[in-house]
Amino acid sequence: MVMQTKQIRLTDELIQELNMLVDVGMYSSISEAIRDSVRRLVTGREAPIKNLPEKTEKTIQKLDKEVSKQFQKAKGTSDFYPEDMEQRKTIFRKFMKTAENYNFKQIEAPAFENTNLLTVKQGQEIRDQIFIIEKKGSEELGLRFDITVSATRMFIEKQKELPKPVKWFYLTRMWRYERPQTGRLREFYQYGVELFGSDKPEADAEILNLLIDSLQSLGLTSKDFFIKINNRKLLEGLLLDIVNKDIINDVIRIIDKRSKLSDIEFLNELKKLDLDDEKIAKITSTLNITNIKEIKTSDLNEEAENGLNEIKAILNLLKSRKEFIQVDLSTARGLAYYTGTVFECFDKEEKFRAIAGGGRYDKMVEQFKGEPTAATGFGLGYSTLTLLLKEKDLLPKINLAPDIYIITIGDVKQQALELATKLREKNRVDVDLSERNLRNQFKYANSIKAKKTIVLGENEIKQGSYKIKDMKTGKEEEVKL
Amino acid sequence: MVMQTKQIRLTDELIQELNMLVDVGMYSSISEAIRDSVRRLVTGREAPIKNLPEKTEKTIQKLDKEVSKQFQKAKGTSDFYPEDMEQRKTIFRKFMKTAENYNFKQIEAPAFENTNLLTVKQGQEIRDQIFIIEKKGSEELGLRFDITVSATRMFIEKQKELPKPVKWFYLTRMWRYERPQTGRLREFYQYGVELFGSDKPEADAEILNLLIDSLQSLGLTSKDFFIKINNRKLLEGLLLDIVNKDIINDVIRIIDKRSKLSDIEFLNELKKLDLDDEKIAKITSTLNITNIKEIKTSDLNEEAENGLNEIKAILNLLKSRKEFIQVDLSTARGLAYYTGTVFECFDKEEKFRAIAGGGRYDKMVEQFKGEPTAATGFGLGYSTLTLLLKEKDLLPKINLAPDIYIITIGDVKQQALELATKLREKNRVDVDLSERNLRNQFKYANSIKAKKTIVLGENEIKQGSYKIKDMKTGKEEEVKL
């Protein structure tokens, strides 16, 4: 049964009345009450409600519980306090530098897009995972769950004037409504790239090189992570020799979730498609290929051959990166829009979810009503990445301590702020803003781990000089005001 | 009449039926149809609908129009293409550096918060300006329209452990549903600070200094901008000597929008409050005070006296910034939560909206159920700022050209990518990814304004060296591979 969501503004009184209908158990929810009222309007049945009871105790308790939840952050989101923020900034700065040196250019897109745009590539099922915004004007908007959609829209808008290939990267956040899990939140930050306008293996090699160099810039090595690479044409071509075309998408969907299934579950899922044991055995042995030399090239169909050539070309371009790359025929990347190369990046022990994933989506620009344009890209999740960095003890060391703290004695506040302003041209400087006594100012300077302190009083002003003290060595230096 | 918004899922069939009721003119919209159906359910009236006509041509046309809108960005939002992004990054980096040197620390908060949290400080009227997210779980969420709310929630969560004062800044975006105008979009970027835990004038002076230094870091001077400063206690105290307490908030609301009204309109608004000409004259002359020495200190009430002392203390601390600051009794900052110092920053000619605004909100932490804590802060909008920078020709000069472009001849793609990787450790390097011929590679290198080019062919590989050419001077240099 196809359903649509509608928004409706009702007066408080009406809502109260509906609440009572729910309280007396006539309807399970206000929504159900409204739905029934619409049915009644359309079918013309007479409404039976006569006398309504008072609001119950239960409703009041519910309300109280709601209020206590009001002042917490939304489920599945993170607050970035200064240390969290500095950590993300440090990591993202390294990604930014690496991507810039690859001559990728940073872009940003609005947080929300028309829901029709968001759903065009993955269909209406994705709607359940979109934070949809209540309609106020004529637009129905939703928070974007990736940026490929927005980047494609942006590319199409300037498709004619931009020199191709277009190489863009982003460091931004997205939103997805799902059950929050480790390394997977409802609001999440991603690093990623899109490369529009080249269908050549060089383009795929370029983004794989960038992914590897980006992770290396954080201190990760081939001992810590690797990339599983596959090609959708190759996989589909090989599968077409085993199963019928009409169930190929179902088979790929099952392959895509294999890592989440036990072997038995995986076989059972395939059996549900009415595949016999021989075919299942063939599928399994195809998926177990980790070296393209195992593939017999003599009797390949055209699609498989094209795919094989593509993956070979990429592997050849990435010869010097061999230790990072592993062919894996079972890497499918379920999303319907991948057309060729697909890859996923994991920690070496595969303890965590994929750190990054990507591939070619040569049909999307066309599907979005642009001039047909090949495209490839990847996305990398900040949350899973930090789990790996933490395990490898590679999280950046954060130091937010100020260089100098100015301690004041007596009525020299104005002069202290002026001195601070001067020193702030080149240093991180803090100064008493709370009119604390001398002892408490020293205590505070210690608590924020100030590297140096200056004591400024009327004497210093008169003398026209002050002492700056290194808090570690205890050394003092005289400086002119 | 207090209204609430409800979401309701209906089957396609029901929606179709409702559409027909709209098409035949029985209701003005589906919403109206649903509302009426609820009224009928509650009041028990009989539904009159009998025979329904066919779907009309009009509906189909409407649908077509909707589809053509699908692939555009949402109204009132901006795409940041590489040049736009680089401009914002350059400006925000300067703000970041300045704020860090003031020992403020960057934070980030989720894009959405519980709507109850969002509305607690400004009341339900603000709801109309919030992008509200359709409820999927038990939470009702909305996109935040400022970050003060989120920062206050975050402060309260760690209130006990954080050394006070807490000095935070942010560079982030917010969302507000309103008619898009010049310098005012539905998605907008802000720079701002919050300082929790000091009720002293030093804290206000600190953020005003920071605001001034931040704008100066972009090349703006006292010839370009100035800050109007006022104190809510002073204003309210002075007004209390003229009008009754019960209309004081109304008077301040009118004062707050004075800049948008003509003199006549302003007077008429005040007259609507039943104020006589003498009182109105007194109000006007109070608002025209631009020097605190004009205020007679002899007969001030307590509130006005407190406010006057606060503003005096701040002006004294900011002596050396005199040329940036102007007392203006008419600066009210309508928002109900300001408690003391208030200020707004404008371009010198007041051609644009306020560039920044802020002040003290000493009651908010308490209102959010935290331990009572004084607080002050400001917010600065990126959009209006860029209008001013543009006019003053101070927008950062953007150069996104790569340092080196590698042109390839023959089958040396793999070696070219490896050379690129090496050079990318220290340079912005691009390389042919489209297998273009030599002529087109040169053309492309020109179109992206590469500073230097390298030609790499089989000869160069054999010789183990290549030439790097400066595209401006034409000078070539031989480099070992």
Record keyword descriptors for this entry:
alpha+beta; Rossmann fold; 481 residues; 17 helices; homodimer; BirA Bifunctional Protein, domain 2; five-stranded mixed beta sheet
Account of the protein in words:
The structure is a homodimer of 481-residue chains. Chain A is an alpha+beta fold and 481 residues long. Chain A folds into three domains: 59 residues, no CATH class; 310 residues, BirA Bifunctional Protein, domain 2 (2-Layer Sandwich), CATH 3.30.930.10; 77 residues, Rossmann fold, CATH 3.40.50. Helix content of chain A is 38%, strand content 19%. The first copy, chain A, contains 17 helices and 17 strands. In chain A, the strands form three sheets. An eight-stranded mixed β-sheet of chain A has the order 2-6-7-12-11-10-8-9, with helices on both faces. Chain A has a five-stranded mixed β-sheet with strand order 14-13-15-16-17, sandwiched between helices. Chain A has a three-stranded antiparallel β-sheet with strand order 3-5-4. The radius of gyration of chain A is 30 Å and the shape is globular. The interface between A and B is large, with 137 and 136 residues. β1 of chain A pairs antiparallel with β1 of chain B.
